Amino acid sequence: MSTLAPAPAHSEILERARSGERIGEEDALALLRSGDLVGVGEAARAVRDARTNPDEVTFIIDRNVNYTNFCVTDCDFCAFYRLPRDPEGYVLPKSVIFRKIEETLALGGTALLLQGGHHPGLRIDYYEDLFRSIKARYPIHLHALSPSEVLHIARFSKLTLDETITRLRAAGLDSIPGGGAEILVDRVRDIIAPKKTTSDEWLGVMRAAHLQGLSTSATMMYGTVDTLEDRVEHLRRLRELQDEAPGFRAFVCWSYQSGGGSRRGDDHAHTTAADYLLTLAVSRLYLDNFDHFQSSWVTQGLRIGQLALEFGCDDMGSIMIEENVVRAAGTAFRLDTERMVAAIEATGRRAVQRDTAYRVVRRF
């Protein structure tokens, strides 16, 4: 990222953002540095209220199924993966995945979030067979893989990226989640996930998916070895891609969960709830071409997740029927539908169940 020029006073930046003017990278950095949690949060809430119904908060009922934990990427921050031949590694049989889908549908669920590790033995025919088997049996949205998994499949199957996406889409892939973005700055990625996709590769998968008509989500995991400048660079690259090839439905950020398997000890950046809320609010103001922002209550806890609704979020994400990756790092917040609705209503808003495309399924 180029050297940032001195930014105007942050109050003037907030006025421009409230009025709908696009703010720049130096503005976003000034807001992150300002520490003005109240002022930035109020502006983010105003922008959120102008973009989405201020009286409603959405959520989805889906299930996060990790079809395998075998992975050769060896990321510094991940406590979930197992190397090939590890006795704790697994590949779920179809029968288990089918049962999990049936349980999800019985609970009113509409989507399957299917992600796993970078398994060295699974080629594209495995995914085509699995996706077709799911679609032949169940009326469920398949929100599957991540950019790094898609690229891994392409490489191990000796296919181009476009060929891979085309074949996966034909087999039943409906949309791609934004996992694996971490921070889209290669200096950071070279430290925490040197074997995973580069920043350009992650963005390249999403660009190709958008151009083929698939929608996606965008994420940011901060708090490893990144700086505030790195966070702004991450947001810049997302906004530029959304301008170039629209397709991101939503943005969600969260802090690194230090209970994971990091080999770097305690040298990751220290983060707080205030840091999360400020980062979220600045993201809402800067990412002016994103409609939806999701609260990460799964990593931050329910109370902070509710507060996120005052800092730019309009969506509470999933009730998390199942979640394994964050849980492996020692964080285990869960809700059922009744408690999710109660949590939203406690903020004075109406709870609305949505599907993956943010279409209304049910109003409570």
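The above is record 1. Record 2 follows with the same two-line structure.
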Amino acid sequence: MTNNPVLSNKGGRTNPYAPHLTGTLSQEASAQVADLIAGRATNPYASANEDALRRDKHDRDRDTVLRPAYVRDVEKILHMPAYNRLNGKTQVFSFRENDDLTRRGLHVQLVARVARDIGYALGLNLDLIEAIGLGHDIGHTPFGHAGERFLNDVFHERTGRWFFHNVQSVRVLDVLYGRNVSIQTLDGVICHNGEFERQVLRTSGLGDVASYDSMVKDCWDRGNQAISRLAPMTLEGCVVRVSDIIAYVGKDRQDAIRAGIATEDTFDDGLGGAYNAWALKAFVADVVEHSVGKPRIAMSEEAFSEMRRAKRENYLKIYGASEVNGEFDKGMGELFASLYHTVLDDLKKGREESPVFRHHIRYVDQWLGHYGHSYDWQSDLDLTVIDYISSMTDDYFMAIAEHLFPGSKRLFPRREHF
């Protein structure tokens, strides 16, 4: 473990950019929430377990008292190997020997926790919220958004299609592991993209498998043009979408301070690492205040403005900082492309001794065999390459890169514990 200085405790201070966000509910909203929690009222807009849509109506997926629809989705996701690999994938900071920095496996849990807090107060389906939250990044690349960008560059150049982690996440859940996850969960996952924040989130009205499939294809074909317009079909999906930002906007600051990229005095609001505690309290209460009893999820103008301001500051002082960008030598993009083309060549020539066959195709095919499916890897070799590379942990990517391209080791600046 790496010892870190204790973050200063400024959690009780006011944010000067949002002085009216106190983290408390009005008397009216508090009474509404109390009625929902006590069961004196129900939310007519909550998703019912019996309405869950699945591609296949297997007996093994039949709802029971102990395992209703979305509990099953949660358990399906937790037991996927792809979920376990999130612990080995970068959230923001790569190449740092610090066990306290957030990995993507923790991030999805934090999102699910924030979303459950909001959903509990609003009387929504907490199991659906948890399933979407835990599954929303399951298709993410190694090395965070930098890896996503590198992989998209080569994929788009070759195919004209677009790679985005939210779209790959539903491919992992729906295709690669064949677990018959509900359309409501899949829809919440593909619509989660926190790069497109909105003050008011309304449901899309999507209600059948064919419409969902058309939406997914549109995202592969048109990229951001389609993704930026996505809206979840459920209020639970809307809650996860806003919770994604709430969960990372302050946590990334804490990690930046731990990593030495920033200090307690770096950020304009003066809260330092305690911004995380402030954000969790203030934003959650604001969302509940402006959403309880309504058929949409909303924030106040003050809260939405502050969320956008904080995100912009994070981009300027964390994500865009020279040291973070400097973690990725310009050769990293070329390395992703070289790996892509090498794997593609192995597939075209049927080199069954290569890692893509031994570590990916056979493994996925064996997994799918338990559910009566097989991996259709030959019909779209570029997608198979995407499946393989995006599934890698940071360490596996570095290992295969050094195995195939020995000179690539120079691109991986490892920082030791001591």
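DSSP finds 19 helices and two strands in the chain.
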